[in-house]
């Protein structure tokens, strides 16, 4: 790690055993440093001010301020940390709301340690975690009466894109990595990153995960 700054992680979970377990596990990775842990979403803002984390591992269900509202508050800050939501169930109805709030992805709490470390590294590098299979299940749990509105909103946003940009957006919606998109569309990884940045600007979206959800809402 000589000359390379470790990725700073804040752990937020109301269960002290989960918090301690995640902290111990993350400290086993040379690339990561756990800078703190709090038990409620209401304490996240002060912890971010004090420790300046790069990534926040955020529990969704907490007795005080829940992870979704805490995420929404963090995303309003200038240069906010990346946020990975933690949940016990892959069909948790709150996960979709967390992604809409600006989270960079989510993990199940029983994810193997190497999977959690990999997720933190990827999110810190600007590649949010999105599981297409889980996303499809989440979308299936949404209220049917909201489906038409979501589809119309998604089509409106994506109508701002060029044909090539829509191809990139569709690939993001299928959960493809930048390298996969580059190979599929015969362009460089750097060009893919430029396209995604331009797409986010045109659609006023915060991150890649929100783009993927929009792509799911409006089949391309």
TrEMBL record:
Keyword terms of this UniProt record: DNA-binding, Phosphoprotein, Transcription, Transcription regulation
InterPro entries: CheY-like_superfamily (IPR011006), NreC/VraR/RcsB-like_REC (IPR058245), Sig_transdc_resp-reg_C-effctor (IPR016032), Sig_transdc_resp-reg_receiver (IPR001789), Tscrpt_reg_LuxR_C (IPR000792), WalR-like (IPR039420)
GO biological processes: phosphorelay signal transduction system; regulation of DNA-templated transcription
Gene3D superfamilies: 3.40.50.2300
Any one Pfam family match given in the protein's UniProt record, by short name: Response_reg
Keyword Plastid on entry: no
Molecular function GO terms recorded: DNA binding
Domain Response regulatory, residue spans: 8-124
Keyword Nucleotide-binding included in the entry's annotation: no
Modified residues (4-aspartylphosphate): 59
Annotated HTH luxR-type domain residues: 154-219
SUPFAM superfamilies reported in the protein's UniProt record: C-terminal effector domain of the bipartite response regulators, CheY-like
PANTHER family in alphabetical order: TRANSCRIPTIONAL REGULATORY PROTEIN NARL-RELATED, TWO-COMPONENT RESPONSE REGULATOR
Stated name of the protein: DNA-binding response regulator
Species of the source: Microbispora bryophytorum
């Amino acid at each position: 790690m000589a000359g390379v700054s470790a990725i700073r992680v804040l752990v937020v979970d109301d269960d002290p055993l989960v918090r301690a377990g995640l902290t111990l596990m993350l400290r086993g990775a040379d690339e990561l440093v756990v800078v703190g842990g709090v038990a409620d979403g209401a304490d996240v803002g002060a912890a971010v001010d004090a420790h300046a984390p790069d990534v926040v591992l955020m529990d969704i269900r907490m007795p005080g301020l829940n992870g979704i509202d805490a995420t929404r508050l963090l995303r309003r800050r200038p240069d906010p940390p990346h946020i990975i939501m933690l949940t016990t169930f892959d069909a948790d109805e709150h996960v979709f709301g967390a992604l809409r709030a600006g989270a960079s992805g989510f993990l199940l709490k029983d994810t193997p340690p190497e999977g959690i470390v990999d997720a933190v590294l990827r999110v810190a590098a600007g590649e949010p975690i999105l599981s297409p299979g889980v996303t499809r299940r989440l979308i299936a749990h949404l209220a049917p009466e909201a489906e038409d509105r979501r589809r119309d909103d998604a089509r409106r946003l994506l109508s701002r894109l060029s044909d090539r940009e829509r191809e990139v957006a569709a690939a993001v919606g299928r959960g493809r990595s930048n390298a996969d998109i580059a190979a599929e569309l015969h362009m460089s990884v750097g060009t893919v990153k430029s396209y995604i940045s331009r797409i986010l600007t045109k659609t006023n979206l915060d991150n890649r995960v929100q783009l993927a959800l929009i792509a799911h809402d409006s089949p391309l």
